[in-house]
Design brief:
The chain is mainly alpha-helical and 322 residues long. It starts with a helix and ends with a strand. A two-stranded antiparallel sheet has the order 1-2. Helix 2 packs antiparallel against helix 8, helix 3 crosses helix 8 and helix 5 packs antiparallel against helix 6.
Length: 322
């Protein structure tokens, strides 16, 4: 199987086309919400405040540990759920996902958004948002006295008491950002599953691809036969030169010449038999002049016969009307 046959065997139609547009609409709504939540949190609206709030209650490490480690030249890294990387990464992937949504919509309208292309795009999006989920739900074990073995406290705990009232709104925003990330990852996973399902060939498509490949092989064989036939010598290639041409006879005798000579002779005999000796003969209600004859006594050969009066050049150079 060649590359052309392999590409032709890949399904290009969706098995559930009615589900594509509703999924696009749902994705647009969720991505707008995600972009708004991620953009509000950029660069550090509430991340450090929630980190400090958890440290005050003994739920995670303290932001001051980073300052003490830098002051004592002790190597330390910011815990992943409280790092700037998570906030910036969320903004980037939300912008990329919204841009890809616009591209997917245009491609779907143009009927070029095939399941294989959809599977590649949504596999990449699932991977990106899975990384974001992992980063937001990572543990914080930087402080042995206050370890955080699971996700941050705003995910595992409520935003009510004992959380300060001024931080409850930020807590809800952080919780909503995590929920939106999960929703987008699930939506892209559904898109990926739908794409893979459409890539599975059915019996009808398999039969069609086999028939198409058979037609292609038949057409290729016919083209090969035509080329070989073109290379073979024809039966009439060795036809001798036409008489009267260079290398042929100088005075050709063709069936047309014989027919016209016979016709001229019969007309001459008719003119001799019915002439009255006055140089004129009568036709149907009209008297016509006899036709001029050549040196051999025969009427000149005309190239065509007409039913009306016609002027032609006689051998003597005179114009004669017939």
């Amino acid at each position: 199987m060649g590359i052309k046959d392999f590409c032709g065997a890949i399904p290009r139609k969706w098995k559930t086309p009615r589900a594509i547009i509703p999924l696009f609409v749902v994705e647009l709504c969720i991505e707008i919400a995600a972009l708004a939540l991620y953009g509000i949190a950029q660069p550090d609206l509430y991340r450090t405040r929630l980190w400090q709030e958890g440290s005050d209650h003994g739920w995670n490490s303290s932001p001051s540990e980073i300052i003490y480690a830098y002051a004592n030249y002790r190597p330390i890294s910011t815990p992943l759920p409280w790092s700037q990387f998570v906030t910036s990464f969320n903004v980037i992937i939300s912008v990329v996902a919204l841009f890809l949504l616009l591209v997917k919509g245009i491609m779907y309208i143009c009927h070029i958004f095939h399941p294989l292309l959809s599977a590649i795009i949504h596999a990449a999006l699932v991977a990106l948002f899975a990384v974001s989920i992992h980063a937001q739900a990572a543990s914080d074990m930087s402080d042995p006295d206050q370890p955080q073995p699971g996700p941050p406290w705003y995910i595992t705990r409520g935003c009510g008491a004992p959380v300060r009232p001024s931080l409850r709104g930020y807590c809800q925003q952080a919780k909503a950002s995590f929920a939106v990330t999960i929703m987008l990852c699930v939506l892209f996973a559904a898109f990926l599953a739908l794409s893979l399902y459409s890539l599975v060939p059915s019996r009808a498509s398999s039969a069609f691809s086999r028939s198409s490949s058979g037609k292609y092989a038949l057409s290729a064989a016919s083209e090969a036969d035509a080329e070989s036939a073109h290379e073979r010598p024809w039966e009439m290639n060795q036809v001798p030169a036409t008489p009267g041409t260079t290398g042929g006879m100088k005075s050709p005798m063709t069936p047309r010449t014989t027919a016209f000579n016979t016709l001229s002779g019969s007309m001459g005999e008719r003119a001799k038999g019915k002439g009255k000796g006055k140089g004129k003969w009568k036709g149907k209600g009209k008297e016509k002049e006899p036709m001029a004859r050549g040196p051999d006594g025969k009427l000149p050969l005309r190239h065509h016969i007409s039913m009306g009066d016609e002027t032609y050049q006689s051998p003597a150079g005179e114009a004669v009307r017939s």
